[in-house]
Specification:
The chain is mainly beta and 348 residues long. The protein contains 3 helices and 30 strands. 49% of the residues are buried. The structure holds alpha-L-fucopyranose (FUC). Beta-D-galactose binds at residues 179-181, 252. InterPro entries: Ald1_epimerase_CS (IPR018052), Aldose_1-epimerase (IPR015443), Aldose_1/G6P_1-epimerase (IPR008183), Gal_mutarotase_sf_dom (IPR011013), Galactose_mutarotase-like (IPR047215), GH-type_carb-bd (IPR014718). Belongs to the aldose epimerase family. The active site is at 179 (proton donor), 313 (proton acceptor).
């Protein structure tokens, strides 16, 4: 399978490259070594029409000026950390505060704004881009030199696999995700409100005013957070549940996954017939329905509007470092962090 590297832009005298992976079915994934940003995913609808199903830009400047983490890898810690600080081994670490008084998606200059080292590999039925970045001890306030590796692999079955690996020379915290905004209508023809989502999750994390987990994991039964039988995303918009209203109408919530690597997340757009199944080894997915995307900029010709994309951020629960009852985000010195998420596209 093919992987092509081309120049995309320049950043402080360094070249930013764009990589394009194309499989035998014509599916295409483009990504940058800046932020490991996925700029484009072309997949067929039920009539074989190849269209883009993620929000992205064609210039680096737009990513720098407007992007709410479009397609990027978020780290070291995806999601909010309350008060922008935490304690580990009896020491308090003060993080960059870039979201009110809190740390969000790794801080002021998280993984999404770094230029990563990149190489491509081509196999008989898959192709990969491997990104590497060393996050120095103290970067954005986090402890330990953390060596990260992120691999994007496209195969001939229209599956994109993202794998993350990390090792640190000191105990630290790691919680990474990819922040792609999906819109299965193709080329942003419609909002995502009519997309139907199925989630194998029976609990979601309640959020406080700052959108940080309170610690309470709420049963989804009888609420618009129940996606176990499938539900349109618009239900979160019209809902009078204070949790939906709090996040600006919609969803911006971590869901605890009841199963792993067994079609636990499935997104379907009936009009185009496109389906995306997401499988992960991570304990949670943050469902974000781009409730605050509205802005005076355009996304490949389409005016930025709320609910134009939906993020399925597979990861650990945000702020786990303050909630010992949540699955831990601590990475011990010398141990390996590993996580894999697969995005599988099909048509019906
Ligand atoms: C998501 C959300 C946030 C934020 C951001 C752009 O992960 O949890 O609220 O708006 O992305």
């Amino acid at each position: 399978m093919k992987a092509v590297r081309e120049k995309f832009a320049e950043l402080d005298g360094r070249t930013v490259s764009i990589f394009t992976l194309v499989n035998r079915q014509g599916m295409e994934v483009s990504c940058l070594d800046y932020g490991c940003i996925i700029t484009k995913i072309l997949v067929p609808d039920r009539d074989g029409r190849m269209e883009n199903v993620v929000l992205g830009f064609d210039t680096l400047e737009e990513y720098q000026q407007h992007s709410p983490y479009f397609g990027a890898v978020c780290g070291r810690h995806a999601g909010r950390i309350a008060g922008g600080e935490f304690e580990l081994n009896g020491k308090t670490y003060k993080l960059a505060k870039n979201n009110g008084g809190n740390n969000l998606h790794g801080g002021v200059e998280g993984f999404d704004k770094k230029l990563w080292e990149a190489e491509v590999t081509e196999g008989p039925d898959s192709a990969s881009v491997i990104f590497r970045y060393v996050s120095k001890d103290g970067e954005e306030g986090y402890p330990g030199n953390l060596e990260m590796k992120v691999t994007y692999t496209l195969n001939d079955r229209n599956e994109l696999e993202i794998s993350y690996e990390g090792t640190s020379d000191e105990d630290t915290i790691v919680n990474v995700t990819n922040h792609s905004y999906f819109n299965l209508s193709g080329d942003l023809k419609r909002e995502i409100l009519d997309h139907e989502l199925t989630l194998k999750s029976d609990r979601f994390a309640e959020l406080d005013e700052a959108l940080i987990p309170t610690g309470k994991l709420v049963p989804v039964n009888g609420t618009v957070f129940d996606f176990t039988e499938g539900r349109k995303l618009k239900d979160g918009n019209t809902s009078d549940n204070p949790q939906n209203i709090r996040v600006g109408s919609g969803y911006d919530h971590p869901f605890l996954l009841a199963e792993n690597e067994n079609e636990e997340i499935s997104l379907y757009d009936a009009e185009s017939g496109r389906r995306l199944v997401v499988e992960t080894d991570q304990p949670a997915v943050v469902l974000y329905t781009s409730n605050t995307l509205e802005g005076s900029f355009s996304i490949r010709g389409v005016t930025a509007a709320n609910h134009l994309g939906v993020c399925l951020e597979t990861q650990g629960l945000p702020d786990a470092v303050h909630h010992p009852e949540f699955p831990s985000c601590i990475l011990k010195a010398g141990e390996s962090f590993r996580s894999v998420t697969a995005f599988k596209f099909s048509q019906e």
